[in-house]
Write a structure and sequence with these properties.
This is Dihydrolipoamide dehydrogenase. Its cofactor is FAD. One of its GO terms (molecular function) is flavin adenine dinucleotide binding. It holds the Pfam family Pyr_redox_dim. It is built from 14 helices and 21 strands. The radius of gyration is 24 Å and the shape is globular. The strands form five sheets. Strands 1, 2, 3, 4, 5, 6 and 16 form a seven-stranded mixed beta sheet that branches. A five-stranded antiparallel beta sheet has the order 17-18-21-20-19, with helices on both faces. Strands 10-9-8-14 form a four-stranded parallel beta sheet. The model has no long low-confidence stretch (mean pLDDT 97). Helix 7 links the parallel strand 8 and strand 9. Helices cover 30% and strands 24% of the residues. By secondary structure, the chain is of the alpha/beta class.
Length: 470
Amino acid sequence: MAENRWDVIVIGAGAVGENIADRAVQGGLSVVLVESELVGGECSYWACMPSKALIRSGLALRAAQRVDGTAQAVTGDIDVAALLARRDSFTSNWDDAGQVRWVEKAGIDLRRGHARLDGAKRVIVTDDNGDVTTLNANHAVVVATGSDPKLPDISGLVDAQPWTPREATSVKEVPESFAIIGGGVVGVEMATAYLDLGSKVTLFARSGLLNGQEDFAGDLVAKALRARGATIVTASPTRVKRTAHGVEIETETESFTASEILIATGRTARTSDIGLDTVGLPVGDWLSVDDTMLVHDTDWLYAVGDVNHRALLTHQGKYQARAAGDVIVARAKGEPVDDAPWGSHVATADHGAVPQVTFTDPEVASVGIMSADAQKQGIDVQIVDYNIGWVAGASLQADNYEGQARLVIDRELQVIVGATFVGQDVAELLHSATIAIVGEVPIARLWHAVPSYPTISEVWLRLLEAVGRP
């Protein structure tokens, strides 16, 4: 059993683990990354990148079809083989050699194998050959192991061998028909993609689509999916059975069949086999952290990304990693820690300023607190809605543009606390809303942020006009 020592050990070499390792190395600390699968993690190979590559071709095609002049030039269907080949290029054909080169160039050490904590600041790594190495940390161990799909309790589901998002995003042979259980982000994005791939899609969403977003977001996405031929079932399956011909799905009142079935009903912490018991923490739970990502009741263990359950989004995990990497360096060197709200060593934006884009058609872009949640929190809110299709830039972007915008305003503070945009090409509107919320820009000052004409961003002026002059 070999033994080695670094300043920081990072368990999990996904995008989040890579970022925290890079920040620590830039701060002068020695770092080792431990990864049991592909360096680059879920986002690079099975989530963000391949899923958006699957979706993008269809979005581009329909954008062209919505503009008179180019619509007449579009005469063919999506080339599925070319689409899948393009998807493969973004995953480097599931080869992490490029990511490994980056790790080496950044001055970060890499160990392959399964990592388990073995007491404070100590990690045991078992590689594929069964060889064991003990790693010791001078200052910190970081858990960046991410999350796994959560399987609902449905009779026969496990035996039916359902797809997880990994199988859906790495598909080689497109199923003729495709059932999806779950109406959240993964469910609606994969419904969008598989309709483009030519599958007949049935989406099971007992409580509707995109719960947690403004109601109109799920309504507009459901309308668009149905218009493209998807069946949306507002009931949960009670039984699933794999047969020689595919999958049988039953609800309390109906039966359905599909070639394949995808489970998209949430995530669970990937912490069941990383040795949490050796440091007195519950096995399999999400790791609770403070705003510097330090696990509660420890002074050396950090948890970053999905595994802390604050915001299961790659960009938020990387944001947490930047803050945590810097604070680990500061603590290691005995330097001051800037942990006040919006300080450089904290992830304050996790509390009420999280941006998210759902890559459906129409897109859903949101940030901050949704109107219902703001009211539950006791905020005196003003809700301002505007039809994006009434904006000149939107009508130029697409004929018969359909979309909706909403601002959630704190009347007392006169600042925006939430914003949602639904429509074609609205993702790029989101960062302006994020800046307004994070910066707590007063409504009166926003009147002087003049949107260019004619662009979709002119919706900001129309929303402010609906708010009224301060």
